[in-house]
Amino acid sequence: MYWSHYDAATSLSLVKAAGLEVVWDRWVAEGASGHLFVLAQRYDT
Question: Is the residue at 37 inside a domain?
Answer without folding.
Answer: yes
